[in-house]
């Protein structure tokens, strides 16, 4: 009759140590666990691609958004940056302009695409086959609003997960609204938005940057 030693070398180390100390019943369950793992292991390689949507207004795109896109692109197989077409807001840049800006600034990221959407985010996510929504949290005050949206999106579609990520700390105070305000008052936007967008922004507002003292 084969001893436990003859059978156990196929079992992972943790399970082997566990088996040595426990009863025959426990050996069986450890083996069963090991068999389950080896059955599941090949399946991990065939898991479907994880697609995430990163929605927002991006009016305009900031370095904080770009930082988050780069982080998201590292952990998701595909990241779809989705610009909301919102007829209630009067944005500084048209959706087409923002699409162009985002496409230019993310062209080095092969798994990132940029689209626009209208209607419910959950419907757009479903249409794209996405499993996750990516949102950035800069400071704790973002959390309440983001949590409310995440809960509501979960209510609308329980299969869609919201994933929060933090941009670099140096962007924790950065927002499109402040960027627009600083630009309109001629302030410096160095390090806050991509240079090409800064040029477009100053042109749109018709305000030249103030010469630094
Ligand atoms: O950059 P923003 O303005 O903070 O992005 C907000 C956005 C676009 C993520 C949110 O307004 C949105 O998802 N709008 C789509 C309409 C929708 O699904 N509303 C229900 C959200 S719980």
CATH fold assignment of the largest domain:
Rossmann fold
Helix content: 40-55%
Number of helices, counting only DSSP H or I runs of 4 residues or more: 9
CATH architecture of the largest domain: 3-Layer(aba) Sandwich
User: Taking strands numbered 1, 2, ... along the chain, how are they ordered across the largest sheet?
Assistant: 3-2-1-4-5
Unreliable segments (pLDDT under 50, ≥5 consecutive)?
A: 1-27, 33-42
**Strand tally:** 5
Q: Specify the overall morphology.
A: globular
CATH superfamily of the largest domain: HUPs
Rg over C-alpha atoms, rounded to the nearest angstrom? 25 Å
The whole-number mean of residue pLDDT values reads 84
Through-space gap between termini:
90 Å
**Could you give a short account of the major beta sheet?**
5 strands, parallel
Overall tally of structural domains: 2
- Helix and strand content put the structural class at alpha/beta
Order of helices and strands: HHHEHEHEHEHEHH
Content of β-strand? 5-15%
Q: Which small-molecule species are bound to the chains here?
A: 4'-phosphopantetheine
Text of the CATH class of the largest domain: Alpha Beta
